[in-house]
Amino acid sequence: MAQSQVRRDPTVNRVVACGAFLAIGWLVSAILGAVVGPVSVPIDQVVAIAWGGPDAAQDPAHGAIVWSLRLPRIAMATLVGASLAAGGAALQGVFRNPLADPYVLGIASGGAFGAALVMVIFTGLGLFGPVFGGFVGAFSAAILVHSLARSAGGLSVNAVLLAGVAVGLSCSAGVSLVLVLAETQATNVLIWLMGSVGGRGWAEVSCVALLTGIGLLPLLSQARALDAFSLGEENASALGVSTERVKLITFAAVALLVAAAVSFCGLIGFVGLIVPHGVRMIVGPGHRKLLFLSAIAGAFVLVSADLCARVLLTDRELPIGVITGCLGGPFFLVLLRRSFLSAGR
User: Residue 129's domain spans which residues?
Assistant: First the structure.
C-alpha cells in the first residue's frame, strides 16, 4: 500500500526553528534578568514569585525585588523591543528602503518631542497624556518624512535619509527647547531621553501592553499589502492595493508603537534597523513572518541589552540607549555603504 509523504516547506522549517530559537533566547535572558543583580535571587524563587506573586517568596525582600522591580523591567523591555522591531520592519516595507527605522528617520525624535512637550507643559494628564503627545509627534514626523522624500527623490535612499535627518534634527531642536522651558524638570527629562526600561511599575507595563497590541494588529493585517509594496507603489496599485490607505495605517500603527515606547522609556535607537535585517536574512522578505519574528527578536534583543546595561558596570547602570547605539551605529554605517555602492553600480 502506497503511503503519501508530505514534505514540509524548508521555509516553514526555518520560520519554526527561528521562532523557537528566539523564544528560548528571550526566556533565558528573562530568567537571567530576574536572577542577576546587586541582590542575587535563586531561580526557583524567581519561578515561584513569577507564578504566585511576591507572597510566594521565602524571603520578602526577594519577593519585592523580583515582583516590583525586575519583572516589570523585563516585561517593559519585551514590549518595547517588539514594538520598535516590528515598526522598523513595517517602515522598511513601506519605504522600500533597508535603512528605514523609527530612530534613523526622525520618527522617534518626533515622538520624544511630543511626549516631552506634554510632560513639561500639559502636566496632570496621567499615563496616556505623554503617549498622546508622542503619537501626534511621531505620526506627524512619519508623514513629513514621506512627503519630503517623495517630493525630493521618489523615495530613493538618499532622499529618505536626508528627509529623516532634517525632520530628526528639527524635532531634536524642539526637545532642546522643551528642556530649556522645563527648568526644574530638565534633569528628569534628560535622563528619560537617554533611554531606560527601569523604574516602571505594572501600571506602566499594562499601558504599554495595551498600546503595543493595538499597534501590532494593524501592521500584521497589512502584511500582504506590504509584500506588494516591494514591487513599487504603481505595481502595488495595479494589483488592487490601496497604497495611500496602507501607508496611512502603517504610519499610524508605527507612530502608536513608537509613542508607547518613547513616552515611557525614552529614545532607544537602532532596534528597528538591526533586528528586521537579521530576521530577513533567515526567513526571507515575506512580511507576515517578518513582522511576527521581528517582534520576538526585538523582545529578545532588548531584554538582553538591558541585562548588559545592568551588569557591565559594577557601580552604576548604563542607559540601554547607549548599548543599542553602540551596536546599531556601526551596523548602520555598513548598510549605508552597501546601499551607496549598490546605487552606484
Answer: 69-336
